[in-house]
Amino acid sequence: MTADPRAAADRRTFIPLDPSLAPPGTRAFRDAGGIPADRWHADQNGETLVPTHCCFCGVQCGMYLRVDHGGKVFGVEPRNHDINRMRLCPKGINAYQQVNHPDRLTAPLMRRSRDEEFREVSWEEALDFTVSEVKRIQQTYGNDAFGLLGGASLFSEKTYLVGKFARVALKSRHVDYNGRLCMVSAAGANKLAFGIDRAGNPFSDILLTDCLLIAGSNVGECFPVMTQYVWGARDRGATLIVVDPRETAIARTADIHVALKPGTDSAFFTSVLNVVIEEGLTDENFLADHATGWEELKAKAAEYPPSRAAAICGIPAEQIVQVARAFARAPKAMAWHARGIEHHSQGVENCLSVINLCTATGHIGKPGAGYGTITGQGNGQGGREHGQKSDLLPGGRSIMNEEHRRQICEIWGIEESELPPAGTSMMEMVWQMQRREIRGLIGICNNPFVSLPNYRVVKEGYDTTEFHAQFDFFLSETAANAHVVFPVTTWAEDEGVMANAEARVVKHNKAQDPPPGVRTDTWVICELARRLGAGDKFDFPDSRTVFDELRVASAGTVNDYYGITYERLEETGGIAWPCPTTDHPGTPRLFEDGKTYHPDGRIHLQVVEWHPPMDPYDDEHPMSLTTGRTVAHFLSGNQTRRLGALVEQTPRPWAEIHPSHGFRNGEPVRVVTRRGSEVFPALVTEAIRPDTVFVPYHWPVPTAANALTIDALDPRSKIPEYKVCACRIEHAERIDEVPAPPVAPGHVAYPETQVSRTDPLPPTAPQGRGTSERS
C-alpha cells in the first residue's frame, strides 16, 4: 500500500486560485471541503476510502474506492469532485469489480507456437523468451522489423515509457497506439487551426453558453455524466443543436436535431457557414484581428448553398438555415464533437469545418463560447501528448523537427543519430505485418481483434507475425492469439495521471496491492529495457520518478506539464495544461487573449472540400452502416463484458433499423458489407434514418461490427472510417451467438456474467422511440 496520504498533505503548500483562470465552480468545490480528498474518512471501522478517478471515458469522474481491512477493493462511492459532482454512470459504479475479478491474469502465459496451448510460466522464462525473440528478429531483419502498440487508457507516465522504450530500447521507428482509433482527426484539425491539440474550453463553460452544438456524440450513453453540463445549459435557456444520424437520448431533447446521412458532415457545416455569410452574421472584426485564410474559405463556402448540401446530407435545406441563425445569433455559442464526425476518411476536414464555423462567428476563447472535442478513452488526451504516437515525441514535439529531436535526445542521453524517424499508424502497421515488414510486436493496453476495422485483415496480420507479446490484466481476444501474455495491474493497483477531455490533468491513486504474480506495466517495460541493454535509461522504480522525467521532457513545449506535481494535483483536484511553473494555476480556457499557438498568433482557417465516403454505394450495398458505443460497455469490451450488471443490461449487439424495412424486434437481420456478413437481432426504431443501420462494436467475431467495417484511412490523421460503409440488410434464420470472453488455462468463463448472452432480443432502453416491443 502507499504511504499515509495525510502525511503528504502536511507537506503541501496551499495554492490560491486565480479566479480569472480557474474554471467556474472550482472555488465553491474547494470551499465545500472536497479538497484535499484525503481528509475524507470512511464511516465504517476497518474501511478506507481512496480518492481516485474512473478508469473509463474522457470525462474522468472522481470516485472513492472502498478498501477493506485486508487491503482489498470491494466497492465504490461517488466523489464530490467538480468534474462529476457525485455522479457516476453504469460503467463507473461497476468498474471496481474488475480489480479482484476471478478472470484476472496472475501469471505470465507462454507458448512457442500458436499451435500450442498456453501454459503458465515464471516471469524469468517469459521475459527471457521475449527478449530472445526481439533480438532474433531485429538481428535478422533490422530494428524496424519489431513494433510496439500502446494504449490511451494507460497513465501518462506509462505512455511516456511506451514511446521512449520503442525508440531507445527497441530502437525501432514503429510505435503507435489505439488513440489512433479515437480522436486523432480532431488533433490534426486543432493543430492546423490553432497550433495546439486540446479542447479550448472547460466543461464548466457549457453552463454559460446560449447555444450548444453537439456533433457526432452520443453524450447520454458514451459520456453520461457530461450530460449534467448539457442540462445545466438548458436550464439557463440555451438552445441545443444535435447533429447525428440517430435520434440518440440527447438528440431527443434537442431544439434542433439534424439527422444527416453518415459521411456528409463537412458538407453540412460548410453550408451552415454559407448561410452565416449570406445573412451577414459573421464577426468581421474578430476575423480581421484573429484569423487568416478567410477570403479563400468564403469562396469555398459559396459553393455549398443549402440546396446542394441538403441533397448531399439528406436533410431539409430549411434546417441548415435554422442551425446557422441559432448558432451565429447567440451571444455565446459552443460546439463540441466526438467520434461521429472524426471516424471518417475526411475526419480532419469534418473537424475543421466546425472550427471554421466557430471562428467565423467569433465564438472562440470566451466564457461560454468556444470549441471542444470529447475524448473517448480515459487518457485519450494525455495518451498522445508524450510520445507513443508514431510522429510525436514528449511534450507534443514533432519527431520530424530537428530541434525537437535534439532536445529529447539530450534529455534521454542518446545521440541524435540513434533516434529513429517517424513510424506509421496503427492500421498501417497491421498492413506491414501482413507484408512481413513488421515480424514482431508488443501490445500494451489494446485489443485490435475487436477494435480495429476489417477483422479478417487484422487477424491475418497478427497471424503472420513470428512473435507477439501482449500486456493485459484480462485475456483479451488479441492476447489469446499471442505467444506471451504479461499479467499487469489494473488502474486501482498503481498511481499515475491522466488528462481528461478538458486537458485537465488528474491523479489516480493506488488503492490496493496487485495480486501475487502481477507486475505494473512500468516494471515490465523497464525490465525488458534492462535485458535489451538500455537499463540505464529506464531506472524508474515507480510512476512518480517517471512523471518527474516527463515534466522535464515537456518543459517549454506547448504541452507543458512542468508546473504540475502530484502534490498540486492532490490539492487542486486537477490542473489544465499548459502549466509552465509550480505557481502557475494552469490554463483551463485557451485563446482568451485572442492568440493561438501559431507563431503569428492567429487562427489558420482551412478550406474544406467534401468528398463521398471511401466505400461506394451501389445496388448491392445501398445503405450506410455506422457503429458506436452503448452505455453499458466500453471500447473492445474486454473489461465490461466480464461485469455481471453491465452484461445483464446489454448482453449482446444488435442491428438498429428503421420500421420501413419490415422487421420486428428480435428478428434475425443479416448485415452485409464488402468485408462479410453477420446476423444480429433487429432493434426496430424510428430513431434512425431509413437508409442507415447502426451496430455497437464492443463484441468479437462472430458478432463483431468491425468484421464489417472498412479499413480506409483519413490521409492526414490515419484514422479508420468506422462511421460509414456501404451495406445491405437481409432476413436470416438464426442470430449469431455471442462468444464468452477468453480466460486463462484452467479457468472457466465466470458464469454470473454469461447468463444474459443467450438472450436473443435487443435491449429496450435507452436507445430511443419504438424500442419497447419485446415479442
UniProtKB/TrEMBL annotation:
The keyword Iron-sulfur applies. SMART domains: Molybdop_Fe4S4. InterPro entries: Asp_de-COase-like_dom_sf, MoPterin_dinucl-bd_dom, Mopterin_OxRdtase, Mopterin_OxRdtase_4Fe-4S_dom, MopterinOxRdtase_cofactor_BS, Prok_molybdopt-oxidoreductase. It comes from Streptomyces rubiginosohelvolus. Residues 47-103 form the 4Fe-4S Mo/W bis-MGD-type domain. This is Molybdopterin oxidoreductase family protein. CDD domains: MopB_CT_Fdh-Nap-like (cd00508). Residues 1-20, 738-775 are annotated as: Disordered.
